[in-house]
């Protein structure tokens, strides 16, 4: 998956590179930094750091990973938070992520794992640090292909904006039920179209030939396979494949499989990611899911959360995934 939030000890991740939230002198510190040094072998990693130090705030440097599962450690110097100069802090924090990602690509890394830079002793508010991290990473992924992980060891420290969480909680309280509610059927919409066509066909200006063509179109739409429906929607929305799979947080290889393998049906989180990328309405989302054999259910907290974002017209998949992660739900997208 191109960008995923994971609850894991970053020192144990098998990404090609992991990022150390470093000081500008690249000296061993405490917290995540100390854990990375100890896991890599503190003496050897410090010697390697001494060769590339110092760096400026917002910059990054790369060293071998030594005893770590990761091949490289990228040392990124985030800013110390200053509430009187938020704009500059945000710029420097985004630079720390962007420069780390650029180093990873330059060194032919296919995957990289970050901690939430500057959110510890540097005092950056965690919700703001998360927002800047997401902005920097998603902007970079718009132009590059690399799997990015945000590693959260202590979930209690993962903070989503209070306003958004409040809205989601209210929606869950209102819509989440313990027994399965029958999913709405988008085929009813097709029936409505059919009866609307019948009414129009009764008018003198509508010829029998046109009525038959409309019925044929409706029947074709009713039986349309998932993949055909998906790519019809992509065309009708005027989007390219690249735009869609990047916005859906889907790996290029997976998207290629969906397009090229006849009859292939991805998993439900992937289909919902595509619906979000295409900014589908709830009815359109229901229809796409149904063609793949799925449905939204108010008995599923995952479904209710995603439904909230679609109903609200909030189509940023990374905002959705942050909330899903907070609720211990699967994330949207796929690899």
What does this structure look like?
β5, α4 and β6 (147-151) form a beta-alpha-beta unit. It contains 14 helices and six strands. A six-stranded mixed sheet has the order 1-6-5-2-4-3, sandwiched between helices. The chain is α/β, with parallel strands linked by helices. Helix content is 51%, strand content 9%. Residues 179-183 have low confidence and may be disordered.
Quick overview:
By secondary structure, the chain is of the alpha/beta class.
Please render the helix and strand layout as text:
Elements: E1 3-6, E2 17-22, H1 31-40, H2 42-52, E3 60-64, E4 72-77, H3 86-106, E5 111-114, H4 126-141, E6 147-151, H5 162-175, H6 187-201, H7 208-222, H8 226-236, H9 241-247, H10 252-260, H11 268-277, H12 282-291, H13 301-311, H14 317-326
Parallel strand pairs: 1-6, 2-4, 2-5, 5-6
Antiparallel strand pairs: 3-4
Helix pairs in contact: 1-2, 3-4, 5-13, 6-7, 9-11, 11-12
Summary keywords:
335 residues; alpha/beta; six-stranded mixed β-sheet; 9% strand
Helix content: 40-55%
Rg from Cα: 24 Å
Quaternary state reads single chain
Tally of helical runs: 14
Mind summarizing the main beta sheet?
Answer: 6 strands, mixed
Strand and helix order: EEHHEEHEHEHHHHHHHHHH
Distance between the termini: 4 Å
How are the strands of the largest sheet arranged?
A: 1-6-5-2-4-3
């Amino acid at each position: 998956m191109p960008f995923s939030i994971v609850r894991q000890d970053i020192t144990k991740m098998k990404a090609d590179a992991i990022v150390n939230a470093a000081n500008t002198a690249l000296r061993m510190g405490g917290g995540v930094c100390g854990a990375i040094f100890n896991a890599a072998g503190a003496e050897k990693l410090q010697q390697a750091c001494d060769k590339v130090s110092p760096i400026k705030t917002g910059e990054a440097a790369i060293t071998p990973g030594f005893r770590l599962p990761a091949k490289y450690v990228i040392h990124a110097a985030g800013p110390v938070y200053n509430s009187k100069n938020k704009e500059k802090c945000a710029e420097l924090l985004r630079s720390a992520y962007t420069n780390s990602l650029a180093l990873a690509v330059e060194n032919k890394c296919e995957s990289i794992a970050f901690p939430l830079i500057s959110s510890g002793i540097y005092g950056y508010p965690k919700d703001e640090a998360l927002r800047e991290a997401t902005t920097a990473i998603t902007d970079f992924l718009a132009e590059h292909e690399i799997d990015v992980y945000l590693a959260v060891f202590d979930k209690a420290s993962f903070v989503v904006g209070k306003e958004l969480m409040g809205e989601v909680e209210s929606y869950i309280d209102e819509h989440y039920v313990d027994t399965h509610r029958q999913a709405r059927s988008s085929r009813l919409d097709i029936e409505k179209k059919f009866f609307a066509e019948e009414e129009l066909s009764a008018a003198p200006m509508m010829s029998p030939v046109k009525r038959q063509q409309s019925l044929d179109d409706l029947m074709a739409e009713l039986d349309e396979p998932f993949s055909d429906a998906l790519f019809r929607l992509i065309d009708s929305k005027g989007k390219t494949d690249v735009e869609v799979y990047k916005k859906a947080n889907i790996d290029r290889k997976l998207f290629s499989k969906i397009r090229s393998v006849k009859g292939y049906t991805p998993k439900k989180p992937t289909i919902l990611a595509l619906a979000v990328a295409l900014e589908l309405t709830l009815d359109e989302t229901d229809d796409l899911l149904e063609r793949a054999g799925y449905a939204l259910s108010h008995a599923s907290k995952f479904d209710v959360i995603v439904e909230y974002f679609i109903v609200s017209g909030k189509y940023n998949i990374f905002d959705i995934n942050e909330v899903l992660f907070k609720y211990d739900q699967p994330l949207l997208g796929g690899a």
